[in-house]
TrEMBL record, chain A:
It holds the Pfam family SpoVAC_SpoVAEB. The chain crosses the membrane at residues 6-26, 95-114. The keyword Transmembrane applies. It comes from the Bacteria. PANTHER family: STAGE V SPORULATION PROTEIN AC-RELATED, STAGE V SPORULATION PROTEIN AEB. InterPro entries: Spore_V_AE, SpoVA. Keywords: Membrane, Transmembrane, Transmembrane helix. This is Stage V sporulation protein AE.
TrEMBL record, chain B:
The chain crosses the membrane at residues 26-47, 59-76, 83-103, 123-143. The keyword Aminoacyl-tRNA synthetase does not apply. This is Stage V sporulation protein AC. Keywords: Membrane, Transmembrane, Transmembrane helix. It comes from Sporosarcina luteola. NCBIfam families: spore_V_AC. The lineage of its organism: Bacteria, Bacillati, Bacillota, Bacilli, Bacillales.
Amino acid sequence: MFSIYITSFIVGGLICVIGQLMFDVAKMTPAHTLCTLVVAGSILDGFGLYEPLIDFAGTGATIPITSFGNALTHGALAEAEKHGLIGVLTGMFEVTSSGISAAILFGFIASFIFKPKGNL
Amino acid sequence: MDQKKYAKLEQGITPKPPILKNCIKAFLVGGAFCLVAQFIALFYMTFFDFTERTASNPTVATMIFISMLLTGFGLYKKIGQIGGAGASVPITGFGNAVVSAAIEHKSEGYVLGVGGNIFKLAGSVILFGVFSAFLVALVKTILVKLGVVSW
């Protein structure tokens, strides 16, 4: 029961270390790094490897941006299983809708409340 | 001096980033975000009707809400300076990209400024996520139809 907190911390941390190595060693920009991680997550789900990682590490696997690629592929595959090829298109945002809608909603709300501070 | 020589000279002069130190910081900050999220997931599983699997959706939304507050009060930038990739890889970094773009472009108006720029930084992640998910799912679906692999 408590081991999930430890595995979550370690796996989540390790994914961030991979990102940091891409910054420092491969000299990639943050945007390139994040895109690469998202693509990696979606490919891992194609091989069915990301779900076992979620079972093992909980939020350590669902909070890093890799899970965004995983969730997109997962939604597309789940819908494709039911409706065939057209499901690839229709199912894509089924799982990940909460992240995108929350980001849009809270982003818009934040633009009402907060003043610009040079955060970019 | 040609471009190659200049690049070589620049490489020699710029100080090397302290890779090990940066990695430890990224590990601790990124791990801390995931740990906080695990407690939020526990909250949703205990007080609402969520299972371990379905709890990840409200957890992600809550993390983005936290990231909105941190960004709005200017704290996320400081976390980013300490944590490096540990702050940008978790979903809070995605939230920060969207929220900060929305706040910064407020002065250009809500439609053209906020609406037009809200995905300025996060757009590439969505684009490549959707495109790679499309390719992966397409290939896998075709392979299943051909009977090469199973779901």
